[in-house]
Automatic annotation (TrEMBL):
Residues 367-462 form the Histidine kinase/HSP90-like ATPase domain. This is histidine kinase. The lineage of its organism: Bacteria, Bacillati, Actinomycetota, Actinomycetes, Micrococcales. InterPro entries: Cl-channel_core, HATPase_C_sf, HATPase_dom, Sensor_HK_TwoCompSys, Sig_transdc_His_kin_sub3_dim/P. One of its GO terms (molecular function) is kinase activity. It is an enzyme of class 2 (transferase). Coiled coil: none annotated. Its EC number is 2.7.13.3.
């Protein structure tokens, strides 16, 4: 089924007055969605519409012949072919009831009036009454212009009740009731004329009211389904966006990790290789020590890179490869080893931990410990590559008490920027991103008293991630 498509809007729009304060016309307009911009998609004529029309026509013809056999059509003066035409033409209207709902409703009302005036028993048969009901129902349920729908359907209903009143007041309806009940003893609470009029009005109120209320409920149900479909599509789009963002964030995380790992170990290897080259002929033992450091650093670097790249494995692989499976992420406990590695490349380093209570550093979340470790690793690598410093100090402070519990690492050196060694800035960017990912803050720059400072503070407790 195809047709026009429009976007639904919320049932309750901002700024709408509460229903209790609305006048009766405003309440009616609100119930029927007069000011609602949503328009129900108008479908093309489908096979189901044609089958419904044919089935209704067949049922109508059968009903017509049964009425004839019961002798209820003896007062009809029109020929049989005209009675058949009236039945078939009414059923045919159902084919286009959803495509052109208001036009079909008007045609059905005219058909009802003409057949009712000329062939009342034919119009009163059950099948045609069902056809008219469906036509009026569809006018309310499928109309796109709700204000026009109220005008058209309201005019049809008013016209029908005027016709009923005309039959009773100016026509022969009342006289026929009097003639049929002359000589019959009254047995009810009211007279036959009053009872007939009241019953006729009640039946028509239920008939037209049911078509209008049912059609409007169907329209509101369709609007709610459209809103749910739009919400589902929005959720699906947001989910895809979040998935893409998660992939991007993971790629950035891996890029930062690789940058820190490669930068640290390549820096160590470069310095140790230069030292080995200088003392290779004069001091073979020192050269051997430097080469051993190169071997250790390269092995550690390869192991950490394999651990990182293990996150990119196909999740459908049955068994992980031990050579590429992820190793435990480094943390605070690994900082002494990291600092000691820098001593082997000629940088005098010291390491200290300041805790508000014993064991506070060991209780840090793994994500916080990893972030602090990578900050120290990048800061020391930058000292080796880009500074003339001979000494560096690493201090970790953990404050679990107080109004603002936090973990902090500070790396200080006593050097100046080395000429022709300006970096790409990715190291500092990585430090700031790591701090931001933990809702922390970073301070990077030269000290007034000389040297350089890298300090990162990460909140703990409810503010930590």
């Amino acid at each position: 089924m195809s047709g026009d498509h429009s976007s639904p809007t919320a049932l309750d729009r901002p700024g709408r007055m509460p229903s209790a304060r609305l006048s009766l016309p405003s309440r009616v307009g609100e119930f029927f969605g007069v000011d609602d911009p949503w328009q129900r998609p108008r479908p093309q004529v489908s096979r189901g519409d044609v089958v419904l029309a044919l089935a209704t026509a067949a049922l109508g013809l059968v009903s017509l012949e049964l009425l004839r056999s019961m002798g209820l059509l003896e007062t009809v003066d029109q020929p049989v072919w005209l009675q058949v035409l009236a039945t078939v033409s009414a059923s045919a209207l159902l084919t286009w009831r959803r495509r052109w709902p208001l036009s079909i409703a008007v045609v059905a009302a005219v058909h009802m009036f003409v057949v009712g005036v000329t062939m009342a028993p034919v119009m009163s048969q059950f099948t045609l009454q069902v056809v008219y009901f469906i036509a009026f129902f569809a006018a309310v349920a499928w109309s796109r212009d709700r204000r026009l729908m109220l005008g058209v359907v309201g005019s049809i209903i008013v016209g029908m009740f005027v016709w009923i009143a005309w039959q009773f007041l100016l026509g022969s309806g009342v006289q026929e009731i009097i003639d049929d009940t002359r000589g019959v003893e009254r047995s009810g609470l009211v007279g036959p004329v009053t009872a007939t009029v009241a019953l006729t009005v009640l039946i028509n109120v239920i008939y037209f009211g049911g078509a209008v209320i049912g059609g409007q409920l169907d329209w509101r149900s369709a609007r709610q389904r459209a809103q749910l479909e739009t919400a589902s599509a929005t959720i699906a789009t947001q989910s895809e966006t979040l998935q893409r963002r998660a992939v991007t964030d993971e790629r950035l995380r891996i890029a930062r990790e690789l940058h820190d790992v490669v930068g640290h170990h390549i820096s160590v290897i470069g310095i140790q290789a230069a030292a080995a080259r200088r003392v290779l002929t004069r001091d073979p033992d020192a050269a051997a020590t430097a080469l051993a450091a190169i071997e250790t650093s390269s092995r550690d670097g390869v192991t950490q890179m394999r651990s990182l790249l293990g996150t990119l494995r196909d999740p459908e692989d049955a068994e992980p490869d031990p050579a590429t499976s992820r190793m435990p992420e480094p943390g605070i406990a690994d900082l002494p080893t990291l600092v000691a590695q820098r001593r082997t490349v000629g940088l005098a380093t010291s390491y200290d931990v300041v805790e508000s209570s014993p064991g506070a550093a060991d209780r840090l979340p793994s994500s916080t410990g990893l972030a602090l470790y990578r900050v120290v690793q990048e800061a020391l690598a930058n000292v080796t590559r880009h500074s003339t410093a001979r000494h560096a100090t690493v201090v970790v402070r953990v404050e679990e008490d107080g109004p603002r519990p936090h973990a902090e690492v500070e790396v200080l050196d006593d050097g100046r920027p080395r000429g022709r060694s300006s970096g790409s800035g990715l190291g500092h960017l990585g430090v700031r991103e790591r701090a931001a990912s933990q809702r922390g803050e970073a301070e990077i720059g030269p000290r007034p008293t000389g040297g350089y400072r890298v300090r990162v503070r990460i909140p703990l407790g409810e503010n930590s991630v």
